[in-house]
Amino acid sequence: MIPFFRKIRQKLLSRNKVTRYLVYALGEILLVVIGILIALQVNNWNEGRKQEKISDQTLQSLEEEINEARSNLEKIISFNERILELSNRFLAGELTKDSLENDPTQIFYLTTYAFTTLNFAITEQELSTERTILGRQSLNAKLRISLQDYLSMGDLEELLGNFWNNEVLPYFIEKKMMVVYNRFLKQESINKEDIQQIVNEEKFVNLVATTNSMNYQFLNLLKQLDKDLEEALVLIKEEEHD
């Protein structure tokens, strides 16, 4: 093709037909430009298809990660609700010495909490680069809110941990309850007599009340995170069907 155009160009020049040559030259340039534009368009189309494929894979990975997180949250929420219900009954005077006779281990649940360890590696990676979910603003926003929920939970969880280490643990040591507490951790039997000295003590009641208050806030954060993750899943499914 190039030798063919070259012969035409030489022929026009030999006949001193400059005007025709210029028109021909412009036409040749135009053909080259059109060819380049077509090549670029094809390349962009291929890149778009490749990016779309990567994005679909990312959406699937995000969906799996969120489903796993929600499954873990369900267990944590259930456990924390049980703790909160138990401490509410204790603070209301419904959980008495007599009611503890069948299960004295309940006393140690009153000052504990359900910690969380969730994996959001893919979510954090994608939000930090916004490579494969770029343009999905609603999904990006919801995922950022979910991560913020998780960070807020971590802050409160740290407060709960510090409170247990600085207040509850020293109290159990002071009351010589660590041997009994260790039996509780090992799921060994505990007698009612083992916990009688702390059941109605004012300091222990205050410890339970403080833990109850923080657990209540913690449970709300757990449920909010689960709600935001559920909404993120809805957005992901909408993207998958587009």
Globally, the shape reads rod-shaped
**What's the pLDDT, averaged over the residues?**
78
How far the N terminus sits from the C terminus, by CA atoms, comes to 44 Å
Number of domains in the coordinates?
1
Low-confidence stretches: 48-54
* Main sheet attributes: strand count, strand direction, barrel closure: none
Count every beta strand, where a strand is a DSSP E run of 2 or more residues. Answer: 0
Structural class, from secondary structure content? mainly alpha
Give the percentage of residues in beta strands: under 5%
What would you report as the Rg, rounded to the nearest angstrom? 34 Å
Helix content: over 70%
How many helix segments? 8
N to C succession of SSEs:
HHHHHHHH
InterPro entries: DUF6090
Organism: Algoriphagus limi
Transmembrane segments: 21-40
Coiled coil: 52-79
List the helices and strands and how they pair.
Elements: H1 2-14, H2 18-91, H3 106-109, H4 121-129, H5 137-174, H6 178-185, H7 192-199, H8 202-241
Helix pairs in contact: 1-2, 2-4, 2-8, 5-8
